[in-house]
Amino acid sequence: MRKLLSLSLLLCLVSVLPAGAAEKIALTYVKAPLNVPSIVEKKLELFEKAFAPDGIDVVYPEITAGPAQTQAMAAGSIQFANCLGGTSALLAASAGVDLKIIAVYSRAPEAFVLLAKDPSVTSVADLKGKKVAGPKGTVLHQLLATALKEASMGADDVQFLSMGLPEGVAALLSGSVDAALAAGPAAYKAQEAGARVVVDGRGLVDATTVIAVAGPFLREHPDRVRRFLDVHRQALTFMKEEREQAFSLTAEETGLDVSAVEAMFPLYDFDPEIRPSDVEELKRTQDFLVENGLMEKTVDVDALVTRL
């Protein structure tokens, strides 16, 4: 009787499972700092159109923090981290997450800045003993560390407070901290509110973000990964040929004025090809992580990169 009941229950469960459930590809959707390609891709449903013929659904979880993206990838809930900080990619690989960097998302040294409001702070040297807010273990943190080194200073010469971009900018504008690390719209709005750029990433960091894919997915579906990259390049072509519409979509999605998008856009290099200089920048980023005690086990950066 117990066997009959178990069989009956199994049949009931099978009867309610969806027949022919579609496959799914999940890629993160990150709008900030000014991710025009991602906005164009989502708004125009470029990935949906590319994968629909194979019955594949595309979903866009809004996971913006790098560590959360790589954790989701490790758990198998996302296949692509579409705009991932180089620091996050390296830290995840060091922790054993099986991922590959398949393209550069952007390089934007001028868009990543150290801001101050106090008129007496005109250089990095003026920050000695002062409070600096910013996100720990990120490209912006690397910018601060490199700028301090250039000024013959070290991490102990400032009081670094780990904060997200909005919180750090708010603390700067309220006078709670003396300087804040920011990028994209947060930096733009802070300057409109009276903050000034003390230093940006030029000559210090390339502020490289990457596109990463889950290693198992790449090995099982290399054709789909190539199709993903083809769609990404389509978005870049659209941005060149339909610039005004791309800016309009970005302004609508970010809440910025079109004029603000136009002003910030030239700060970004969205060329996806992985250059030798990009690999060297990732190696410098790994050195920063190790030197600051954020990374114990190094990775083979060259092996982490896959060119398709």
From TrEMBL:
Residues 1-21 form the signal peptide. It holds the Pfam family NMT1. Gene3D superfamilies: Periplasmic binding protein-like II. CDD domains: PBP2_NrtA_SsuA_CpmA_like. One of its GO terms (molecular function) is ATPase-coupled transmembrane transporter activity. SMART domains: PBPb (SM00062). It comes from the Bacteria. This is NrtA/SsuA/CpmA family ABC transporter substrate-binding protein. SUPFAM superfamilies: Periplasmic binding protein-like II. Belongs to the bacterial solute-binding protein SsuA/TauA family. PANTHER family: ALIPHATIC SULFONATES-BINDING PROTEIN-RELATED. GO terms for cellular component: membrane; periplasmic space. It comes from Aminithiophilus ramosus. Keywords: Signal, Transport. Its main location: periplasm. Coiled coil: none annotated. Residues 35-248 form the Solute-binding protein family 3/N-terminal domain. It is found in: Periplasm. The keyword Chloroplast does not apply.
